[in-house]
Amino acid sequence: MTLTAKIGFGGKVTGEVSVMPKLEHELGSRDVGSDASGKIIILSQAPTREFLEKAKFMGVSGVVAPEIHYRDFNYFRDEGQFAMMVIQKFGSGELSKETFEKIGKASGKQAQLDGETHELKIS
Amino acid sequence: MLSYQNISRWLTSKVDPIVVEDFLGNREVFGPNVKPTSLETEMEKACLVEAGELQESDLLLLKAVGKEQSGVALEVEVSDGDKKKENFKVKANDYITIVPEGFLKLKIRGQNGFKIQDQKEFQFEGEGKQRVIIEAVTL
Fold first, then answer.
1. Chain A contact for B86, CB < 8 A?
2. The pTM is what?
3. CB contact under 8 A, B29 and A73
4. Would you list the DSSP string of B69-119?
5. What is the C-alpha to C-alpha distance for residues A53 and A84, in angstroms, rounded to an integer?
6. Looking at this predicted complex, what is its ipTM?
7. Burial code of A74-95, b = ≥16 C-beta within 10 A, e = fewer?
8. pLDDT band at B17 (very low <50, low <70, confident <90, very high)
9. DSSP-assigned beta bridge partners for residue B121
10. Cα atoms in the 13 Å half-sphere on the side-chain side of B36
11. How many other C-beta atoms can be found within 10 angstroms of the C-beta atom of residue A72?
12. I want to staple B88 with a disulfide (CB 3.0 to 4.6 A). Which of A5, A26, B38, B76 is the partner?
């Protein structure tokens, strides 16, 4: 399955997919641990800057988010430590139900995320 | 891209800068929203006014241009065409916002080389303006 979006940054990375279902609270640094190292995380809700800082620290290869704030997007793009793809737009919204149903089953599979072309290929 | 400051000065209510920045980012990537909320409609109008692409509107942007960085750039007389008159001074790289209650009469005099629409003196008279911004920018 291939998913293409209009917004993203970073290079081409590969890794195991880890899908994070929507949490009741805002995504913070406590929501990402060392088990995420080397993985491509697919989020169901917009990440905070703290979450992405921790993800970067933990060595996450790529992040796929439904939405992200414009300022955070620019900040992490300039830092260039991981690849990112934003499925919907700039903002704080959640992943649509249809998209989650499509990619929600990808957990544990191998994927390639190209931040430059904003393309996610799940094998 | 326009800034939060450019947009927020036209809005009728206070809006989180993050919301404005997300709106501007989306506008740049995806173009104007096809199903805008009332706030997005207001922000889109502000973008068009700032870009000089919306002349006939209830919003009016009058921009004076000059070189001098300090001192008074504009002297502005605002009146309702009758008795009520107010005078304002606008410094370089600053602006004033006027929210007219009905008929609006403006007399603007450029100082220190500032000109508005290539004129040292500028006048405006009219009705139907909800918000007017008079700005002095330096080259």
1. no
2. 0.88
3. no
4. -SSEEEEEEEE-SSS-EEEEEEETTEEEEE--SS-EEEEEEE-TT-EETTB
5. 13
6. 0.90
7. eebeeeeebbbbbbbbbbbebb
8. very high
9. B109
10. 15
11. 21
12. B76
